[in-house]
Design the sequence.
């Protein structure tokens, strides 16, 4: 059996103020979106936190534009990671409160993560490019 390089979750980095905001958001939707809330809180708890000015520029943060591959569908995607109120799939703006959004936060180009989709199937997401919006 082939072992995916994404089987072990890669190290991730987050901006400290965003981590706090995202924790509050995840807790606020815990009853309505328990799975995504749990996934996001788990990622926040294992992240290395940085002040905004010290955050590596090639790291997915809120409002980043991300190119990534979904190995299950063999497709490449480009999106912007946003807060729920700004989400618009037609404009390729995905919410942090989606499984994909929660999985991409904190990753860098070349990193992959084995992550559940909305149906609970595991998918390997690989970040190709990151353009930070700050």
Sequence:
């Amino acid at each position: 059996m082939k072992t995916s390089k994404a089987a072990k979750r890669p190290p991730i980095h987050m901006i400290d103020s965003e981590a706090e905001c995202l924790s509050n958001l995840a807790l606020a939707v815990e009853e309505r979106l328990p799975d995504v809330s749990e996934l996001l809180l788990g990622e926040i708890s294992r992240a290395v936190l940085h002040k905004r000015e010290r955050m590596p520029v090639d790291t997915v943060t809120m409002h980043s534009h991300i190119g990534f591959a979904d190995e299950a569908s063999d497709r490449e995607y480009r999106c912007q990671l946003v807060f729920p109120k700004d989400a618009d799939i037609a404009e390729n703006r995905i919410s942090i409160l989606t499984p994909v959004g929660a999985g991409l936060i904190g990753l860098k180009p070349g990193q992959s993560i084995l992550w559940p989709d909305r149906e609970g199937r595991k998918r390997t997401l690989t970040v190709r490019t990151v353009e930070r919006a700050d």
In short: Residues 17 and 33 are 22 Å apart (CA to CA). Strands lie at 13-15, 48-50, 65-70, 75-82, 93-95, 112-116, 122-131. DSSP finds three helices and seven strands in the chain. The longest strand covers residues 122-131.
